[in-house]
Amino acid sequence: MTAPEGPIILFDAECVLCSANAWFVLKRDRRARFRLASMQEPAGAALCEAHGVDPSRPDTMLVIDGASVWRDSDAVIAVCAGLGFPWRALTVLRYLPRSLRDPPYRWVARHRYRLFGRRATCWIPPAGYRDRLL
């Protein structure tokens, strides 16, 4: 599989919160920099497995940009950095130690279905954005 240009965000398309985040990114990524891949689809599942995440039980989102891979709060910060102003301002969070950033991220990730719900089918973006999904 050949990776497209730009960073790839791997997300759980059955998770309501994760799908809302994917839609948020698509609408605010004015330069169309990011590509998205559902962990439930073959391309996303293969990328997850290649980076140590079980696509049938995802516990994080991943951002893959060439040889760089971010997960947990680092992935959120990488997305904010790529979205530009005003979201880039949130990259100041990278100066907090991961030991403070990652536990809240992991707590929400573990409880996301209970807190936000789970879709019966994977989220699919509107037609104008489908070219940005793998």
What is the fold's blueprint, element by element?
Blueprint: E1 8-11, H1 16-28, E2 35-38, H2 42-50, E3 62-65, E4 68-71, H3 72-83, H4 98-116
Parallel strand pairs: 1-2
Antiparallel strand pairs: 1-3, 3-4
Order of H and E elements: EHEHEEHH
Percent of residues in helices: 25-40%
Q: Work out the strand percent.
A: 5-15%
Profile the largest sheet. Answer: 4 strands, mixed
Number of strands: 4
- If you average the pLDDT, what whole number results? 90
What is the global morphology?
globular
How many separate domains make up the residues? 1
Number of helices: 4
What key attributes describe this structure?
about 40% helix; about 10% strand; about 130 residues; alpha+beta; 4 helices; single chain
State the gist of this model.
This protein has one domain.
Overall description:
Helices cover 40% and strands 12% of the residues. With 134 residues, it is of the alpha+beta class. It has one domain (8-132). It has 4 helices and 4 strands; from the N terminus they run E-H-E-H-E-E-H-H. The mean pLDDT is 90. The protein is globular and about 35 Å long. The N and C termini lie close together (10 Å). It has helices spanning 16-28, 42-50, 72-83, 98-116, and strands spanning 8-11, 35-38, 62-65, 68-71. Strands 2-1-3-4 form a 4-stranded mixed β-sheet, with helices on both faces.
